[in-house]
Amino acid sequence: MDEKMPLVSVAVITYNSSKYVLETLESIKAQTYKNIELIISDDSSTDNTMQLCKDWCDQNKDRFVRIQVIEPEKNTGVAANCNRAEAACEGDWVKLIAGDDLLLPNCIETYIDFVKNNNDAICIFSKVEVFGENKIKVDNFKDSIFDYSFFDLSYDKQYEWLIDGRPQPIPAATCFYSKKRFNDIGVCGFDKRIPMLEDWPRWITLMEKKVKFYFIDKLLVRYRVSDDSICSGNKYKPAFRKSLALLYVYYQHKSYSNLKGKKNAYSRYITNMITITDNSFRWRLVRKGYGLFLKFFNL
């Protein structure tokens, strides 16, 4: 393998993505960087996503070093789908992309040029353009989430931001990372316990491993917000709210380390609540109750 042209795995994460997935695939095909393998991992779509992808791959197989299409027998959630895709990746570097987002033509080449000049970089982000057909939804999303000032903060401030309940500021759609070096430090896959929120737990895990987040001040990815998006601005679907509650249980409350047995007992209570209900109002009560619980014990 030519060290100047490392193999990059671009992995497309799909679920009922038929409306936009061909645009996504064409954006990967159009990359100025050539040494790419294509992985498509579906989550048991009920539309014709897989047939569209297979037909497209047959027509464009000569563009890529390798193509693999993964079809599970049942729906498992985003985190598990990302794990299937990541496990199939053979490249030195990995770029995950949702089946409705787009890579700008110079995306992969820009990342590779950056890592050549920054040997310590194993996790890199860039600017992202939020777009979609509904301008109100797009504008709401822009105003409610991504904040590039995060990358200018100290490690302590970044970690605090990720665990204190504020909106997650990292443009996850732009993440470019070394699978091998992630594995070397013990970051293997996404947390399947949180099925619809794959990125935030990984950021917290990486920060606990003292991994530096690098940032390229260039627009490299387009992130689509649509009516089908699991989250859009401040409006979350019930499955996403459930995963936010699970994030709180498994990750964010870990910073409160003095509660001991009482904390563990309450965590089990919340987990049971999460298991038995899909009611979004109940999630809000559970999360609010946990915050009051910590406040009561001065934690």
**Which strand order do you get reading across the main beta sheet?**
3-2-1-4-7-6-8-5
Strand content of the residues, in percent? 15-25%
Calculate the mean pLDDT score and round it: 84
Indicate the structural class.
alpha/beta
Helix content: 40-55%
Distance between the termini: 52 Å
Query: What is the radius of gyration computed over CA atoms, rounded to a whole number of angstroms?
Result: 19 Å
Per DSSP, the total helix count is: 11
Order of helical and strand elements: EHEHEHEEHEHHEHHEEEHHH
Major sheet characteristics: 8 strands, mixed
Task: Based on Cα principal axes, name the global outline.
Answer: globular
Unreliably modeled segments: 256-262
Total number of strands: 10
List the helices and strands and how they pair.
Elements: E1 8-14, H1 21-29, E2 36-42, H2 49-60, E3 67-70, H3 78-88, E4 93-98, E5 102-103, H4 107-117, E6 123-131, H5 135-144, H6 155-163, E7 176-177, H7 179-184, H8 199-208, E8 214-224, E9 231-232, E10 235-236, H9 238-250, H10 261-276, H11 280-296
Parallel strand pairs: 1-2, 1-4, 2-3, 6-8
Antiparallel strand pairs: 4-7, 5-8, 6-7, 9-10
Written overview of the protein:
This protein has 299 residues and is of the alpha/beta class. The chain is built from 11 helices and 10 strands. An 8-stranded mixed β-sheet has the order 3-2-1-4-7-6-8-5, with helices on both faces. Strands 9-10 form a two-stranded antiparallel ribbon. It is globular, with a radius of gyration of 19 Å. The termini are far apart.
